[in-house]
């Protein structure tokens, strides 16, 4: 299917922007093929080694049942467009974003290390991008992660719930499109 998508894009693409179906699996295939076609843009390319490193962060077994209540649910390292991850530990969900992160594992690492130190089991459910604009009081959640691909449907809805709880005065929107 990926080769078919790439062939389709080569035959029809005139720009580096495509409108992709919101939840179709084909969207991810087309997005990846489009990235290959146009050279990946400004984004770093996730190599097999980097995906393997991300896999070591994805899950941890732990003896502790719950996360300390002092661990914030939603943390952004700064404003602007950033890579983000959604992490589940016990019954809680956590969102971490970092505009300086080259890879999603860079956004995940501080929380994962904190959870491991507390011996709390966790799973990185997936990731994408967040446009965090504190002055405009907006948060837009979208896209996907190559290092932490969603298993099944994108769960930006859970990420939005965590963000809305942390920023109740902000407008939080989601989209499954974009990279």
Structural account:
With 179 residues, the protein is an alpha/beta fold. The protein folds into two domains: 2-37, no CATH class; 59-175, Pyruvoyl-Dependent Histidine Decarboxylase, Chain B (3-Layer(bba) Sandwich), CATH 3.50.20. The protein is built from five helices and seven strands, in the order H-H-H-E-E-E-E-H-E-E-H-E. The protein has helices at residues 2-12, 25-37, 48-58, 104-117, 156-166, and strands at 59-60, 74-76, 80-89, 92-98, 122-133, 138-142, 171-175. Strand 5 (122-133) and strand 6 form a beta hairpin. Helix 1 packs across helix 2 (25-37). The longest helix is centred in the middle third of the chain and has 14 residues, at 104-117. The protein is globular. The model is unreliable at 1-41 (pLDDT under 50).
């Amino acid at each position: 299917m990926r080769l078919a998508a790439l062939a389709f894009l080569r035959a029809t693409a005139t720009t580096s922007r495509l409108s992709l179906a919101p939840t179709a699996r084909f969207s991810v295939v087309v997005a990846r093929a489009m990235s290959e076609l146009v050279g990946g843009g400004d984004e770093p390319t996730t190599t097999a080694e980097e995906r393997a490193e991300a896999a070591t962060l994805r899950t941890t077994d732990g003896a502790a049942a719950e996360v300390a209540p002092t661990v914030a649910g939603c943390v952004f390292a700064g404003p602007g467009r950033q890579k983000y991850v959604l992490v589940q530990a016990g019954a809680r969900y956590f969102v971490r974003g970092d505009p300086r992160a080259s890879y999603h594992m860079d956004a995940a690492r501080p929380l994962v290390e904190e959870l491991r130190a507390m011996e709390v089991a966790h799973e990185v459910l997936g990731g994408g991008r967040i446009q965090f604009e504190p002055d405009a009081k907006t948060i837009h959640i979208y896209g996907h992660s190559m290092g932490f691909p969603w298993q099944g449907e994108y769960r930006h809805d859970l990420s939005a719930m965590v963000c809305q709880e942390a920023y109740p005065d902000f407008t939080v929107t989601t989209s499954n499109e974009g990279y």
